[in-house]
Design brief:
About 35% of the residues lie in helices and about 15% in strands. By secondary structure, it is α+β, with helices and mostly antiparallel strands.
Length: about 110
């Protein structure tokens, strides 16, 4: 069954890079706008460089907000945009075996 055209993305979503859409779907796809949060304490783990670039893109696009919170440079990200449609789109893609280029989201911080 072909699912690529079932969920139509907005022009704002289409203007994002594939990485930004995937990170938005993975981390914010089940959160209601302005209600959920993604926290990196930056003590043990952090976003990979590629995932951080995607987060930065979402921040620049005004789709998420962020604030610092601890001495390690911890960051709290909150969705402003409703990413649930993206989350559904990428869930369907995974179920259909359309995973694309692997994207690691976090990496350990070595002491």
């Amino acid at each position: 069954m072909e699912n690529k055209n079932i969920i139509q993305l907005s022009k704002e979503e289409m203007s994002l890079s594939e990485d930004a859409r995937r990170v938005g779907a993975a981390w914010f796809g089940m959160m209601a706008p302005k209600e959920g949060q993604l926290v990196f304490s930056m003590e043990r783990n952090r976003p990979t460089k590629r995932a951080q670039a995607a987060l930065d893109e979402l921040l620049t696009a005004g789709m998420i907000s962020c604030e610092s919170f601890n001495k390690y440079g911890g960051i709290i990200y909150r969705p402003i945009w409703d990413f649930r449609k993206l989350g559904t789109k990428y869930m369907l893609a995974v179920l259909n075996g359309e995973t694309g280029d692997p994207l690691s989201l976090i990496e350990p911080i070595n002491p």
